[in-house]
């Protein structure tokens, strides 16, 4: 292993250059993902006639594979460096997405999604660890807000591009998405060499650090409830948008609106609120808002009403994303950043898997039983329960994090 650079040992020039590279990488990575994944449920349910439950299970397998194996990606990043693992991960993801272009039945669908998930497991934790290593506690939340703003721009471009390309065929969407991940491989070559673990540390030591950190473990367990709700933007909301709008393009419009709200609000809203409130308070408020928007879908039948609810959900997500990322990075032990950030993905893995399966199943049941409000009310209750539990956890733990107002 190359000589270690600790989390505070990069020059200002190295930090700025590396963080710029990560922003460019973020744009292409998110564009490639969001142009394809929302189209998966629409294509396999509406075009190929698969049950939403089956597609939900396939998406759940992808989710739990990626997040369940992410700790492995974090461990490998601690051992071999983030740059190498990100490059390997985006290559495997590109192969998986290209495979979707030829998946016309359930088994190839599961295989292609699983391959793409392994790629995500290899690059996600190293990517997050690179951000944590190149930022400091005083500017971390600000950078996460900026990174999420870039993600919002990419999430606007992605679904719109996907909606245009699906007019040709689903294969075209898959192959262009794959090409964007190969482009990420080129971009990441400009990232400086980063090691996220002390030279003398061993894998077992890093895993032990995470395993003994009860505060960290309880936080990621609680946040699984949030992900159960949040992943519905990738399965039943696109399906509902197609029904409400009467066209395939409805899903792209709803997701583009969500991204546009992220662009408009992400940086400035988080900045202003963080001057007066803690990250934990903003996080809890965001989950409440997201849950309320999810439940409100049960009250609307029109496409415009659905878009209003998507706007509320997206505003809640704007509050959650950067604050949760900053809390995780601040809570992680800098001796094993990659392992910690890989372990944090278990929250999305388990919560996302449960969310995809229950989302698809509840959607099918609601259609068959003609109770359209069933999935929306269910997920609203889950989200609000999570927010309440998180509020009491913070009070009992007495946790504080660096305020955004400290950023210069």
Automatic annotation (TrEMBL):
Residues passing through the membrane, by range: 21-42, 109-134, 146-164, 170-195, 216-237, 249-269, 281-299, 305-324, 336-354, 374-394
Localization annotation: Cell membrane
The UniProt entry's GO CC annotations, sorted and at most eight, read: plasma membrane
The cross-references to Pfam families, in alphabetical order and at most eight, read: MFS_1 (PF07690)
Question: InterPro entries annotated for this entry?
Answer: MFS, MFS_dom, MFS_trans_sf, MFS_Transporters
Q: Alphabetically list the UniProt keywords.
A: Cell membrane, Membrane, Transmembrane, Transmembrane helix, Transport
Regarding the membrane, this protein is recorded as: Multi-pass membrane protein
Start and end of every Major facilitator superfamily (MFS) profile domain?
A: 18-398
Keyword Secreted recorded: no
Q: Which domain of life is it from?
A: Bacteria
Q: Does the keyword Magnesium apply?
A: no
Q: Which GO terms describe its molecular function?
A: transmembrane transporter activity
- Name it: MFS transporter
Question: Source species, please?
Answer: Prosthecochloris marina
Q: What is the lineage of its organism?
A: Bacteria, Pseudomonadati, Chlorobiota, Chlorobiia, Chlorobiales
